[in-house]
Structures are given as C-alpha cells and as structure tokens.
Design goal:
Blueprint (H helix, E strand, L loop, with lengths): L5 E2 L13 E3 L4 E2 L15 E3 L6 E2 L13 E3 L4 E5 L11 E3 L4 E4 L13 E3 L4 E2 L14 E3 L6 E2 L13 E3 L4 E2 L15 E3 L5
Parallel strand pairs: 1-3, 2-4, 4-6, 5-7, 6-8, 7-9, 8-10, 9-11, 10-12, 12-14, 13-15, 14-16
C-alpha cells in the first residue's frame, strides 16, 4: 500500500487461489478492475481504495463467498452497482467518491452482518431501499448523491446505528418519527435535501 505501483493488475491474479486479503490502496494503477478477482474464493478483505481504477465494478466480485470487507472508495468507477445479495458474509462496503449511478441494489437488505455501508459522493438515484433487516448496521453514509423519496421508516430496526448521513440528496418528506428509537445515534445529518 501507499507505494508508486502503476499499470494494470494482471488477470493472472485470479490464479492466487489461497489469497485471503488484498491491500493495494493508495497506488497509481489504471484501467479496470480485473474480473478474475472473482476467482479468489478464499478472499475475505479487498482494499483497493484510491488507486485510479476506471470502468465498472465486475459482477464477479459480488459472488465471493467469504468476502467480509470491500473497499473501493476514491477511484473513478462508473456504471451501476451490481447485485450484492450473494455476499452473505459482508461486514463493510465503502464505494465513496466514485461515479456510480443507478439505484442501490435492493438485495443489500439481505446482508445481515453488515455494519458499514458507505456509498457517499456518487451519482446514485432512486430511493433508499428498505434496510430493516440490517440490524448490525452502525454507519450508513449516503450523502451527496441524487437519492429521492423518504428515509424509510424501517431504519428504526437498525438499533445499533451510530452515524446516519443522508445530506445533499433530493430526499423529500420529513424525518420518520421512528428515528427516535435509534438510541445509539450520535451523528444525524440530513441537510440540503428538498
């Protein structure tokens, strides 16, 4: 990490079948993420933030059975978020500061171990999906997107939530009254909406 590595990640990385962690953040790669990363079925942690990657997120990444942490923030990734529901062991996902568009996949609500969901500073549209099944969620950051509609009332089931940031969107309606049930909440930011 934090070196001056550049160029492409070779597709042959998919041959390293025993890898459990890849941490190459803060380097100067270019080009897309290789779809062959999806062959690394032992991978638990993938940290490729701030590496200048472009293109879309390979859907193959969303099939890794043991993946716990997926950090791809501060790249130049485009396109939509692939369906994510197969990542049943995922605890943290950070896709902040890319150029992702489209909606947040509804299957995200099936990730019952998720504690951290950070999708801020993208171009995501549509509404916030129902998150009532994410009872371990502690950090939800969706700020600076183009999300519309209300904050779902089911957020009240996320009783471990400490940070809720939804500012700088196009959300409408008022805060759900159920938000008072979030007794662990320390940060609530919803300014600059409609």
């Amino acid at each position: 990490r934090s070196n001056e590595l550049s160029g492409l990640i070779p597709s042959s990385v998919g041959n390293l079948s025993l890898l459990t962690e890849i941490s190459l953040y803060e380097n100067h790669f270019n080009g897309p993420l290789p779809s062959e990363l999806g062959l690394l079925t032992s991978l638990a942690r993938l940290n490729l933030n701030d590496c200048n990657f472009t293109g879309s997120i390979p859907p193959e990444l969303m099939t890794l059975p043991l993946l716990q942490l997926l950090y791809l923030q501060e790249n130049s990734l485009t396109g939509t978020m692939p369906e994510i529901s197969a990542l049943s062991n995922l605890e943290g996902i950070n896709l902040r500061k890319n150029h992702l568009s489209g909606s947040i996949p509804g299957g995200i609500r099936q990730l019952s171990l998720l504690t951290e969901l950070i999708l801020s500073e993208n171009e995501l549209t549509s509404s916030i999906p129902q998150l009532s099944e994410l009872t371990d969620l502690q950090n939800l950051n969706l700020r600076h997107n183009k999300l519309s509609g209300p904050i779902p009332s089911g957020i009240s089931f996320c009783t471990l939530l400490v940070e809720l940031e939804v500012r700088e969107n196009q959300l409408s309606s008022s805060l759900p009254s159920e938000i008072v049930l979030l007794s662990n909440l320390r940060v609530l930011s919803a300014r600059e909406n409609q």
